[in-house]
Amino acid sequence: MFPLDGFVTRDPSQVKYAVLNHWYVDRVYDSFIAVITQDPDYPADLPPQDQLDWMANSYSHITDSLEIQLLDIRCRGNVPAPRHNIFATLPTKSPKTWHDLCTLFDNIVYTDPLHGTGKKGPIRQCQICHCVTHPRGLCPFPNIEGWLSPKINNPPPSDAVATSGETGTNRHETNRILTCTY
Predict the structure, then answer these.
(1) 169, containing H or E segment
(2) Least confident among 45-49, 60-64, 173-177
(3) Which of 14, 40, 89, 102 qualifies as a FRET site for 67, CA 20 to 30 Å off?
């Protein structure tokens, strides 16, 4: 659904707890109802109690399917800047409803007294596999035997960085350190 930046914990279970604490707030559920009742598959022809049950089951489906994936991002100096990808199955086939639900959840500022504040981070596409769940430096595919596409360039030896201007090599092209710009 979206990446969260800002939490200081690397523990996905702690982030999941913080996210669910926000998703269980009445105003978030009310906003969900406002979106899901506009879905083309909303069962408006059912009796009111069945509609309420359908909405509650749909919301439970989202919260039950919530998964958090840690990306161990590091800034210069090996400073941790953990990013957590948020995944959940949304109860719709409508692109508009799906977009509106993602917008609802990614506009929340997630706060936790022990783990900081998480908010939606920028979505960046991996330049190797084109996936949006990880940056180039954390792409798992080049490690697969037989991978024939681009590889991650490992950092040059320290003496190569010092002489990079002399050899014509741009050290930024071969340096694997991720710069934290979000």
Answers:
(1) none
(2) 173-177
(3) 40
